[in-house]
Amino acid sequence: MDTLISFQSVIDAFGGPTKYAEAIGIPGFHAQSMKTRDSIPPAYWEDTVSAASELGVPGVTLKRLAELAKARPKKRGSSEPERAA
């Protein structure tokens, strides 16, 4: 069974926000914010995959991160713009 079911679980797989932050070279508060929002912005995906490979964190791939992003609920107001009547 795949244990990477959310961006939060990806961050936890590194040992939590502090270790994830160290692994990809960002401030700890930023990693904590990512975990709280359950979102890793695409700009950090390549670093995340590289760090996972180096540290032996299984299952972290660009494909998996993209799947997690696609599965996230859309934010209110982010659907198609309203059409003028």
How would you explain this protein's 3D organization?
This protein is mainly alpha-helical and 85 residues long. It has five helices and no strands. It has helices spanning 7-13, 17-24, 28-37, 45-55, 62-71. Helix 1 packs across helix 3 and helix 2 crosses helix 3 (28-37). The longest helix is centred in the middle third of the chain and has 11 residues, at 45-55.
What general outline do the C-alpha atoms trace? globular
Order of helices and strands: HHHHH
The number of distinct β-strands equals: 0
Q: What is the beta-strand fraction?
A: under 5%
Overall helicity:
40-55%
The main sheet comes to: none
Low-confidence stretches: 79-83
Distance between the ends? 49 Å
Structural class by helix and strand composition: mainly alpha
Rounded to the nearest angstrom, the radius of gyration is 15 Å
- Give the count of helical stretches: 5
Overall pLDDT? 89
In short:
54% of the residues lie in helices and 0% in strands. By secondary structure, it is mainly alpha-helical.
